[in-house]
Design brief:
With about 425 residues, this protein is α/β, with parallel strands linked by helices. About 40% of the residues lie in helices and about 15% in strands. It has 15 helices and 14 strands.
Length: about 425
C-alpha cells in the first residue's frame, strides 16, 4: 500500500499521537508499505525529507502561535525537548495567548489548526497524484486533519480512508476545541459527514466507540477499538535511590477543566496542616510541559514547596531513566470517561505501584490498571477525606522498592500487534 498519513504535529514533537504513529510507521514500512507523512511546518526542519520508505512533507501551520514562531525562526516548542526551554511560560507568551484567547480562538473553526487546511489539502492532492496513493489515514485531534482527508475522499472515491480518532471532536464538550456556543451544531454535522464518508474509524477505548454509535448511526459497523501503544524505547535503567526519601513521579501534562492537580494539592496541604512530619520524607515530582495554568495552580500551595517539584519537560528516554529511580507513580484521571491516557501502558511496563487520583466513579484509568499493577485509586470528589488519607498513607508505607520492568505486561500494546490491527482494517 502507498499510504498518506495526515498528522500534526509530527517529529520532533513528542505528543501521544507522534509517539504512537512513529512506532506504527516503522512497522508499516517493515512490512513493505510506503508512507508519505503530511504535516505542518516547523522552524529548523526541512519542508521535504525522504528516508527510505518514509517521505515527510510540511506545509501550513499547526497553530497561530506556531505560525508566529515559524516566521521568527523560534525552534523551542511545546512537546519538544530542549535544554533552553524549561517548560514554563514566559510573560510574552502569556500576553500573546491572552490576546489570541479573546480574538482568534473565539472565531476559528474547526480548531486552531485551520491554518493547515488549505495548504495541506493542496499538497495532499499533489502527493496523491504523483505517488499513486491508495490509502489515507488522518489522525485527530486536530480535527482539521480529518477535514483534509474528507476533501480528498470526496474527490477520489477509490481512496481508502481510515479516520484515526485519538481524541473525540464533536461530543468532547470539556476540551477547548472551538467556540461551542457558535459551532456546536456545525461540529456534530461535520463529524457525522466524516463518519459517513470514511471507510473505517478507529478509537482508543470502548466508551468512545459507544458514544459515537449513540450519536451517529453510520458509525455502527465501521468503528473499531485499537488501544494505546507501548512504543519500545532504549534507556539506561537506574537503581532506585536507597535513602529514606519516598519519591513519587507524575509523567504527563495537565489541562484546565480536564485534568488538574488542584484537588490533589489541596489533599496534600490538608495532611501537611495536620502534622508536617507526616509527609516530611515524601517528594512528588511532576514531569511535563507545564504552562501558565499549571504554574498558577502550584503557586497557590507554597506550604508544599518542600514536597512538590514542578519539573521541566523531558524526552521520553530521559524521562524513563529518571523515573526508574522512583518508588511510585501517580496518575490523574480525566473528568471525562471517554479519554484513556496513553501513558497508562508505560505504567504497565514500569511495574511500579500506582496511585490513581480519580474524580469519576467510572474512571477509565482505574479500569485499565486494576489487576495489572499494584494500584490504589482514591476519589477526591466523593470519598471521605479521612478514608482517603488513611488509604493513601497506608499504600505508600507498604510500597515495594523495585525497578523490574515487564515487556510481557505490554505485549498486547506493542507496535507490531497494533500495526497489524490497522493493516487489517485497511485491506
Amino acid at each position: 500500500m502507498n499510504i498518506l498519513l495526515i498528522i500534526s504535529p509530527y517529529l520532533p514533537a513528542q505528543t501521544p499521537n507522534t509517539i504512537r504513529w512513529t512506532a506504527l510507521i516503522r512497522e508499516f514500512t517493515n512490512k513493505g508499505h510506503k508512507l508519505y507523512v503530511l504535516t505542518t511546518k516547523l522552524a529548523g526542519e526541512e519542508n521535504v525529507s525522504i528516508d527510505k520508505n518514509i517521505s515527510t512533507y510540511r506545509t501550513g501551520h499547526h497553530t497561530l502561535l506556531d505560525a508566529f514562531y515559524n516566521f521568527t525562526g523560534k525552534t523551542e516548542r511545546r512537546n519538544i525537548s530542549s535544554e533552553k526551554r524549561r517548560g514554563n511560560s514566559g510573560m510574552f507568551r502569556r500576553v500573546l495567548e491572552k490576546i489570541v484567547d479573546n480574538t482568534w480562538r473565539r472565531l476559528y473553526w474547526p480548531d486552531g489548526s485551520v491554518l493547515f487546511f488549505k495548504p495541506g489539502k493542496k499538497l495532499a492532492r499533489k502527493l496523491i497524484k504523483e505517488n499513486e496513493i491508495t490509502h489515507v489515514i488522518s489522525v485527530g485531534l486536530p480535527y482539521t486533519n480529518h477535514l483534509i482527508a474528507q476533501s480528498l475522499k470526496k474527490e477520489n472515491k477509490e481512496l481508502i480512508w481510515l479516520m484515526d480518532i485519538q481524541d473525540p471532536f464533536s461530543y468532547s464538550d470539556i476540551f477547548r476545541i472551538n467556540n461551542r456556543a457558535l459551532y456546536k451544531s456545525k461540529n456534530l454535522k461535520s463529524e457525522e459527514s466524516c463518519f459517513q464518508l470514511a471507510n473505517k474509524v478507529v478509537v482508543t477505548n470502548q466508551n468512545a466507540k459507544t458514544a459515537y454509535e449513540r450519536l451517529f448511526d453510520c458509525s455502527v459497523g465501521k468503528t473499531s477499538v485499537i488501544p494505546p501503544i507501548f512504543a519500545e524505547i532504549a534507556y539506561s535503567q537506574k537503581t532506585i535511590n536507597e535513602d529514606e526519601k519516598i519519591r513519587i513521579a507524575f509523567m504527563g501534562n495537565f489541562y484546565e477543566n480536564v485534568r488538574s492537580p488542584e484537588a490533589f494539592l489541596d489533599f496534600l496541604s490538608r495532611i501537611d496542616l495536620e502534622d508536617p512530619a507526616i509527609l516530611s520524607n515524601y517528594q512528588f515530582h511532576f514531569f511535563g510541559d507545564h504552562g501558565h495554568f499549571v504554574e498558577q495552580v502550584f503557586k497557590r500551595y507554597p506550604m508544599l514547596n518542600d514536597l512538590v517539584y514542578l519539573e521541566s519537560y523531558k524526552a521520553r528516554s530521559e524521562l524513563f531513566e529518571m523515573v526508574s529511580r522512583f518508588d511510585l507513580l501517580i496518575n490523574f484521571g480525566n473528568k471525562t470517561n471517554y479519554h484513556l491516557p496513553s501513558k497508562l501502558v508505560d505504567f504497565l511496563f514500569l511495574q511500579k505501584p500506582v496511585i490513581n487520583i480519580s474524580l469519576l466513579k467510572d474512571d477509565l484509568s482505574n479500569r485499565f490498571l486494576k489487576g495489572r499493577v499494584e494500584l490504589m485509586t482514591i476519589n477526591l470528589s466523593e470519598t471521605d477525606y479521612n478514608e482517603n488519607r488513611n488509604n493513601f498513607l497506608d499504600f505508600i508505607s507498604r510500597r515495594r522498592r523495585s525497578n523490574t520492568v515487564s515487556l510481557n505486561a505490554v505485549s498486547e500494546y506493542l507496535p507490531a500487534k497494533l500495526a497489524m490491527d490497522y493493516i487489517e482494517l485497511l485491506m
